[in-house]
Structure to design on (280 residues):
């Protein structure tokens, strides 16, 4: 049972480890048909979505929200917390929606009477009014007014996969609203927005960067410092390099989603006093 206090709480739902990034409607409808979060295979594959409209949305239990992350956080991935208002089981009635009182007939014993059975045995006949449960529902739960659920601000940890891009939706299975009737949970869908970077530009999993170099250094060649998303690296510039020459640094781009390979970085040599450089 999940217990939630009023106000700011941290929600932990047991057995949920499913993060999905969705790619298209077909894949999502397959995923959606599986409403029991405990049936998510442990080795699910992340999926991507360009649009929230592609995803069938269950308005009663799914929660939709968005989060803005930095360019480098999108490249590198990592954990981030998000606060979400979501419905959980009512802490007072634990989802029954009812307010119980001690059974007046059996005075809370649950027993109607005790009868002899055999020579030494006894048997308890359960109370007819409460069925042996010792209590009876007298009214709706005062906290949830009978709905069985209450809303609380929850902190959900997002596991942002390296390489996620602007406009993609991260789906966290089982972190949506509770469905009191069948005691299951909807999904949390987080539309990811990525801010632009002053130096790096992205094309799929490749990084493009302009590196300003003096005329003299272009002529002589030598080692230059090049910014990469994982830190600066030193690159050897050949003699007599012309401006607008583009060098490709293999594997220095963004980690491809759910793969072990990375994109490339394309380094364009520009004049040190170029307008492009002065803009930055
Ligand atoms: Zn009773
Ligand atoms: Zn309640």
């Amino acid at each position: 049972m999940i217990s939630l206090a009023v106000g700011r709480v941290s929600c932990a739902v047991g057995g949920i480890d499913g993060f999905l990034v969705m790619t298209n409607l077909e894949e999502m409808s397959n995923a959606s048909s599986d409403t029991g979060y405990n049936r998510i295979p442990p080795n699910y594959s992340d999926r991507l979505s360009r649009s929230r409209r592609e995803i069938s949305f269950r308005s009663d239990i799914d929660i939709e929200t968005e989060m803005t992350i930095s360019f480098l956080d999108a490249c590198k991935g990592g954990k981030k917390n998000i606060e979400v208002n979501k419905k959980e089981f009512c802490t007072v009635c634990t989802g029954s929606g009812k307010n119980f009182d001690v059974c007046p007939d059996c005075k809370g014993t649950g027993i109607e009477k005790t009868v002899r059975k055999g020579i030494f045995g006894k048997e308890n006949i359960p109370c007819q009014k409460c069925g042996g449960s010792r209590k009876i529902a007298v009214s709706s739960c005062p906290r949830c007014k009978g709905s069985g659920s209450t809303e609380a601000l929850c902190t959900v940890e997002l596991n942002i996969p390296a390489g996620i891009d602007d406009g993609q939706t991260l789906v966290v299975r089982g972190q949506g609203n509770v469905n009191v009737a069948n005691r299951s949970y909807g999904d949390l869908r987080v539309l990811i927005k990525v801010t632009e970077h002053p130096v790096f530009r992205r094309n799929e999993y490749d990084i493009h960067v302009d590196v300003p170099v003096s005329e003299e250094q272009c002529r002589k060649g030598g080692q230059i410092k090049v910014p990469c998303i994982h830190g600066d690296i030193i690159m050897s510039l050949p003699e007599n390099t012309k401006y607008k020459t583009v060098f490709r640094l293999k594997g220095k781009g963004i980690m491809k989603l759910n793969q072990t390979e990375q994109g490339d970085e394309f380094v364009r040599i520009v004049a040190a006093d170029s307008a492009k450089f002065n803009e930055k």
